[in-house]
Amino acid sequence: MSSVKIDQEPSRGPVAQLEEFLVAVEAIVGADNVSRDPSSGGPAGFDDSTAYGDPFPLASTPPAPGPAIRPATVDEVRDVVRAANRFRVPLWVVSRGKNLGYGGSAPVEDQSVVLDLHRMNKIIEINEEYAYAIVEPGVTFIQLYDEIQRRKLDLWLSVPALGWGSVVGNTLERGFGYTPEAAHYKHQCGMEVVLPSGDLLRTGMGALAGSKVWPLYSGGFGPGLDSLFFQSNFGVVTKMGIHMSPAPEAYTRIVVEVPREADLVPLVGAMTDLMRRRIVTNPPQLFDRMPMVTEAARLHPELLAMLGPYGALDRHIPDTVMDAVATAIGLPAWRAAFALYGPPEAQDGLLAAVKRRMALVDGAVLTSETFTAEPGSYLRGAVVTPDFLPQNGVPGIELAAMFSPAADGRWHNCFAPVLPPSGRELYEWYQGARALTAAHDLNFFADFHVFDRYVISINLIVFHASAAPRIHALQLALMEFSTGLGYLEYRTHVSFMDTTAASQDFNGGAFGRFTTLLKDAIDPNGVLAPGKQGIWNSDAKLQRLSLGGAEEAEDKKE
Q1: Domain 1-119+504-558's class?
Q2: pTM listed for this prediction
Q3: Listed residue (196, 193, 236, 200) closest to 82, CA to CA
């Protein structure tokens, strides 16, 4: 696999030019909203830190953020982008910078100025009848949920594992939740975007001033432009429409457990079949015993003691130790969770269909719990039994307690390829990826999300901070193994964006040539998020590849 050196960057303008830029933007956003020191100014995160950057850095010399700018309005964003062009200053754009496991608010290009949009936190509209909202990038899932509750609206929002992130930011990264609208990018409708020139664009039906269907119909007249702004550096999204679910009258939570590791094959086959038949409409969450054991050990000292010297997660936990803990607390090999949403009359029939299909999975144990609203009303997500991940649309930050950026804390990194909805192929990949993870003396945490026609198979590597130097080599090994089987990540850490992009090798890298062509055309100065998803201007791309050439030559010698 070709490699690109990640700790050298194309040169930019002189420091004095950066200072001129900062003085100029202070006049736009106010001096209080410009941080020359990136150690403060962002939205609070772990341990209430407001620092910019990656709380779990992987590279030996990771790219670090430079100063930060916090505009509050669309006009301020436009003026900042124009100033960046004038002074040739690169901007790394974040909605709230909570892209944890993928780099946080750290840039690809070292010392890029962070364009932090968290002050743009207006909820423009919530429409209960048509189940949509229009929000700015600083709006969090918790904020939108709280506003829905305050207004007593009968809506369920799809939320990710941690609710402190941006609705817009998560959607643009193709993040997901756990209700029927889980694939957030598929339920986005209409964007407002500041282009690299500072011009302002509305997509879809928003191209008509005063459009009444901008957040309702995701198409438009002419080419669909929305997808150009997912995982890209072609613009700054300042407003977005997002669709939600009408609150259901009834809800059934379902957990399925299987006793053997190889039972993954029929279990996944059953779940994807139920989804394609629209019996199950939210993506099942699927975990192996590693996250179950380590979370139980975190909460119960006697179980942590059973892990012995491996409890810190600085080393691979032997299977014999895992077996002992799992047996002591009666854990299955795999646990899946999903739900049924709809009218009370449908719950028994849908549940019977699920049970009939799961009966074909040898050894599967299914448990369920149904909640029904009072006649004439709808359920509130908060009244149902919560699951490990929020199928009830209630956001929280409790899972953040699993991690800590401290020097002796639990860090994490996500390796997230997309696989076919085949239990056999998923199991083949799981066995190989887990063996590679163990060979690097680390632990594979299966965090799989099963959709109707694909599986997002996340290896959520949780590790002691001292093990961070081994993550880089493991990530490259996992990438080589996965692409060899025909699987690419849907999302990656900022340290690996170039390498992942280099895997897009169809027709000699036609995809990369096209994105570079677009970048050159709409952002000739390369000011917006250089290197995001491996997208560079042609001159910066050539320079960056030349910087990595010596390392690549050395790799080939070894």
Answers
A1: alpha beta
A2: 0.92
A3: 196
